[in-house]
Design goal:
The chain is α+β, with helices and mostly antiparallel strands. It has helices at 21-28, 79-90, 100-113, 119-126, 136-151, and strands spanning 2-6, 9-13, 47-50, 53-56, 69-71. A hairpin with a 2-residue loop joins strand 3 (47-50) and strand 4.
Length: 152
């Protein structure tokens, strides 16, 4: 039995303790915005926030998040999230869109800690978030734009 808060709701799951958080979210809680990409934390499609920290759900076991607060793309909110989402739309960042929930989760975590990141900060925070469409330049530009929107 594992207990945690997901998107502000207390949840209790009777699952194996070594079940990856990704599968608990997708299969048990039906929160399918968090995507499966590689299963080895190399692509970032499964990124969620665990206690505010960008975390790869595919390699995080549910036993490791017992008592934690988890935010998925479905539950992301607040000023930082709104700025990121607005910048993503304004700059038409997504192409196929598959990686975008992970990209947005990583970008939001970065901006929550660093409201004015430079290119090196962005590159470090977004490292490991793979975009099959190679929209990296637009992603970086959108993060800068989100930072501007947050200041407004």
């Amino acid at each position: 039995m594992v207990q945690f808060k997901v998107n502000g709701v207390d949840r209790t799951l009777d699952v194996e303790p070594d079940m990856p958080l990704l599968w608990a979210l997708r299969d048990e809680l039906k929160l399918t915005g968090t995507k499966f990409g590689c299963g080895v934390a190399s692509c970032g499609a499964c990124t969620v926030h665990v206690d505010g920290v960008a975390t790869r759900a595919c390699i995080t076991f549910v036993e490791d998040v017992d008592g934690a607060e988890i935010t998925t793309i479905e539950g992301i909110d607040g000023g930082t999230a709104a700025a990121v989402q607005a910048a993503w739309a304004e700059l038409n960042v997504p192409q196929c869109g598959y990686c975008q929930s992970g990209q947005i989760m990583s970008a939001s975590a970065l901006l929550a800690e660093n409201a004015r990141p430079g290119d090196a900060d962005i590159d470090a925070a977004m490292e490991g978030n793979i975009c099959r469409c190679a929209s990296y330049a637009r992603i970086r530009k959108a993060i800068h734009r989100a930072a501007e929107l947050m200041e407004a």
